[in-house]
Amino acid sequence: MPPFDPSYHGQSISRVKSIASQMSPPSATSFSAEVVPQAPEDPLFGLMAAYRADQDPKKVDLGIGAYRDNNAKPWVLPVVKKADAILRDDPNLDHEYLPIAGLVPFKTKAADLILGADSPAIKEKRATTVQTISGTGAVHLGALFLARFWTGTKKVYLSNPTWANHNQIFSNVGIPIAQYPYFSKETKGLDFEGMKSAILGAEDRSVILLHACAHNPTGVDPTMDQWKELADIMRQKNHFPFFDCAYQGFASGKLAQDNAAIRYFVEQGFELVIAQSFAKNFGLYGERAGCFHAVTGPGAEAESTITRIASQLAILQRSEISNPPLYGARIASTVLNDSKLFAEWEDNLRTMSGRIITMRKELRAKLEELGTPGTWNHITDQIGMFSFTGLSEKQVLKIREDAHVYMTKNGRISMAGLNTNNIDYVAKAIDKVVREVQ
Asked: Cα(74)–Cα(91) distance, rounded to whole angstroms?
């Protein structure tokens, strides 16, 4: 080996510096505005931020889809408090990982709840359940599964309008989106003929996303007879039902009434999937407790088919979140697996749904007493958390500016934001804007 020559190495360093000085400086980022444009703010969370920044003492939040009590405060369900106390006092409680598919006692009861404990899908072992990050995670897992494995028409039909996040979720996994008419601006009810026509005209074996109850954002649901007619059309076209259920028990106060459409489709032998949320009906908004259910059609191969589906769902879940969160599932499971707590939960559901129904009646009555132009029966005809008021975007912006009443631009209001302290104020504000802004 030749001896070390410091002068040689000094020359080498000088040459490197010389070459470097001739090169253009490195780019500050690989993610220029052309590559990564500024995304628009989420409309709902932007509305929440605007409401929080408003200093007017009379401001009213009718935007956020979360239950509030008569004092406009979040309500922790009494039964949830009891379940929480039970968990805190359990000396064997730990914080280990859940299995990939989630907490078994929770999943079992969640399936019973959404399908019915006597469901043929459960009895015939042709259903599987994966615990998810609330309803959003369930829709995403279902979309991801269909993007990977659905062999029919790779297109999902969404109601017009629908929950805004549906569009983003399916777009992000590469499933093209189409729409079927749903809300009639004339009647402020269901455009059933338009809905049927679009589903009948869709390509065979398309995915049809359906809101099981308390349609978001309109609060308009098909009747049971209409659900049966839709099932006939979907069977004729070999469409694949994807039910999204965020409000079971919260809508009507009756668990069996709010899952009736799902039970009917399963009894009719449909192969389908369901996204189920426990955010609204347990008040576990931030705990992200939900489930995704897959049901295959009856037949000799049904059990082996659902086993294969479950295996692939587990792979997808593992790659996305590894395993689901624990606390919310434990709370719900504690209630669902205890008959006394379950009965108390049903009573809590009646409290929430009953207060919202009362607010619907009172708002309609006050608008009619004021002689507000138009008809307002749709307020009580609709169901669940939301009501499509029929206010235009121009009226929505005006009522926010003048009265500090916040709602989404399409005129959707959260009925839970109304209470005996603000309903007169809101009714008068609506009356004023309807008269002044056309």
From this structure: 30
